[in-house]
Design goal:
The strands form two sheets. Strands 1, 2, 5, 7 and 9 form a five-stranded mixed β-sheet that branches. This protein has a four-stranded antiparallel β-sheet with strand order 4-3-6-8, with no helix packed on it. The protein has a domain of about 100 residues: Immunoglobulin-like, CATH 2.60.40. The termini are far apart. The chain is globular, with a radius of gyration of 36 Å. With about 140 residues, the protein is mainly beta. The protein is built from one helix and nine strands, in the order H-E-E-E-E-E-E-E-E-E.
């Protein structure tokens, strides 16, 4: 195609030059990202069935006495009561080891010890967070009202 006007010829030359310049020298995309180091590997927990046992007692003027018939509820829906010696046991309790579970212990006429902290997310006393590293035995003290 023959362009007869100087303006048309000038436009073709400028457009060709701009296209060639852009292809040869593309605009920088910005600074190169700094690589983020990978987080350290997390130890995989080993789901296992452990035994959770213990005693529920009260401290009296006569000494420490068992609390028979106290209810014990484990967060995986296991429920039971202490025997005449205040003893309870649940097995297997499925939990990641190491890990934590939540249990509830109570009996009418008794309350938690004053220093027993409330568990976040639970509105009533009696709940406890238990750290499990294997078979676990607890000693729980309640206070008679």
């Amino acid at each position: 195609m023959l362009i007869r006007t100087p303006t048309g010829l000038l436009a073709v030359v400028v457009a060709t030059c701009l296209t060639a310049c852009d292809a040869a020298n593309p605009a920088p995309a910005g600074p190169s990202p700094i690589p983020t180091p990978a987080p350290p590997p997390v130890a995989a927990c080993r789901a296992t069935g452990v035994t959770l046992s213990g005693t529920v007692s009260e401290t009296t003027a006569a000494g420490t006495l068992p609390v028979p018939g106290a209810r014990v509820f484990v967060s995986d829906d296991q429920d039971g009561s202490t025997d005449l010696n205040g003893f309870f046991s649940f097995a297997p309790v499925p939990v990641c080891v190491p890990g934590e579970i939540v249990i509830w212990v109570g009996k009418d006429g008794y309350v938690d010890e004053p220093e027993q902290p409330l568990v976040p997310g639970f509105r009533e006393a009696g709940w406890r967070v238990v750290t499990i590293t294997g078979d676990t035995a607890l000693a729980i003290t309640l206070v008679r009202r």
